[in-house]
């Protein structure tokens, strides 16, 4: 009966053999079958090698657990390959020949084995039976004196927490309540991730949710107590399932200093066991990293490595650094026993100096750091006196450095260096593989991030929105806080334009702090550079506030003083970097990124931020150019509109103008109303062919020419004939236009007399008080086409209550698919305007045009309404 099954597929590449070994090891250890792990790993290694190296196909490895043992199946896609059997007897190959060794090992180590063929695959399997397990001790450590035993409290509390498949706490024992202060009824049903203070960097490594999905996991993290304190615990996770098949995770937790209760034991050789001189390392070094996390979990692997290295050499602290791609610097990625928040992602040079301890490329033993100050910069001011460091190398290339330190001088010798070097050699390949996997994942995430950032930045040409997008894309993805400085022109000083912090309550304090600090220097040189001024200013302000509060005494201490200053210092106390914003060979600003207290940026994040800054700089400069162009365009467009409409005695006048297109205030349509003299007023409404700057130029020519010619005393036909000649003189730049021009003269009897010329323009409509609508003019030829125009004036008298409506074709040609408002539709709208003022008539016409179709209008519109008010009868 099968009780558990796990499977994985491996590509036909050399590193797949190591990955397959790790898969089988982790699976069997997760099932608690450490007794047969070694045999299973050896056989799996041989069979997977046959598949991916000799057969050249992918290999599928399955681990099947039954009641009597474990069956390992290795399948490949090369069924034609024959078994390497000899002709005589059951000789499965000689140890001296290359082929057949895997089957020879199967015959020697497995209880049963076999080969199965199908049309598309070949499967080699072997089964290892469970050994008899008599009562007694399965593994044991040496007898130790009492003073060497781990120190615990009077009573060791082991919290047992069960978490269901969705990550919710389903069980919480009394020890968990004693350790963390939460009662079971408060915790059961809540997400365990809300309690775990997980040492995890976003976008890298394993998080709490992933760790709970592993078959086994062991390591340190924090638990948030009921009083908001974080207690560091050492935990062992075991994933199980109930009879119904529902998975859950059982977590055993003790306080971190009592980790010996749960931590997997490390074999310590007996005093007389001697050393394996031929292997160059003691036998206990073989057991240091057994049970490590999955190879692609870099953070978990590194943290487990430093913890096991510290325990192996009985040190007080340990750290692991990974080399950058050019191998010139090392970056701190994991540490234990050190202030990790301050050290994480800090960078140190590979060649630290001259002398015996100057390079990370060779093992080194520092007997007393007090004699050689600065030999290990990472341990400065930590209290560590002796340290042993060894390189991590893969194929002769430096990939990292592993160090173990102690507070006592002279603690380590060359013997400990050899032990640590052997352990480092064992883990180096797994670390490098996990690092490359993480790097690939980071690069894919970076590409996705940059694509999304480019789309967002390209979606706006507004300067303020671009600044906000720049900050929101960096916080909190790349940094804890961000500030953007802008430079208006080469002679201007940088100006703080935008500040953002992941904690909104700290934005004002951060902005106030940065406003008191001189801005960073604007440079064209690409790349991030460290800027220490904000951190120094924050620390100085916090110190001054603390001293002031101490001098005033607790009773006089301001409630918002020290806390606010210390909070600001904590917010900006980490590493701060500045990236230049350069566009078109000009520095237009700086992008400043910061971390909280004692944190550093990792190199990959800085490279991503540099890519983002280049895109953001171009987007910001495009927004600046667009804003300048829009401002100039709108200024010129406003000059084409009449500044104000004069008040005409006895006549209501209302104009509504809408220019189509984003950022346009004037298009090809225009209007005007101006005094001519002797109580007369000229009015015009027109539409120039086309849109854009060319149409706007003809608009300006027409409006100004009409005013000049009308004030010279010319009548309507003469005015339009002169305008026609001026337009034709423009040659190829000329545009024809439709124009309604007239003279308005109020009369003493309350009416208004109009002389109108309608040159190719939609006819003006006259609305009478009884609701009838008629055309107020006749169509005539339009200007800008022929030299000789034969135009004439028509006289219209508006009686009290009459309305004259003049529009451009943007109103009558309003469309929805094949349907158009047209002259009839406009007439129908106007018939409903009886008794309305001129302003209400114009507004109703505009509303009808906008509601005619759901899409915004695509043509300019001008509406000119004139109404002669009705005379109210005198009260008797």
TrEMBL record:
Q: Which SUPFAM superfamilies match?
A: ATPase domain of HSP90 chaperone/DNA topoisomerase II/histidine kinase, GAF domain-like, PP2C-like, PYP-like sensor domain (PAS domain)
Q: Name one GO molecular function term.
A: phosphatase activity
Keywords for the protein's UniProt record, in alphabetical order: Hydrolase
Q: Which PANTHER family match?
A: STAGE II SPORULATION PROTEIN E, STAGE II SPORULATION PROTEIN E-RELATED
Residues of the PAS domain: 160-189
Per the UniProt record, the source organism is Streptomyces palmae
Q: What is this protein called?
A: GAF domain-containing protein
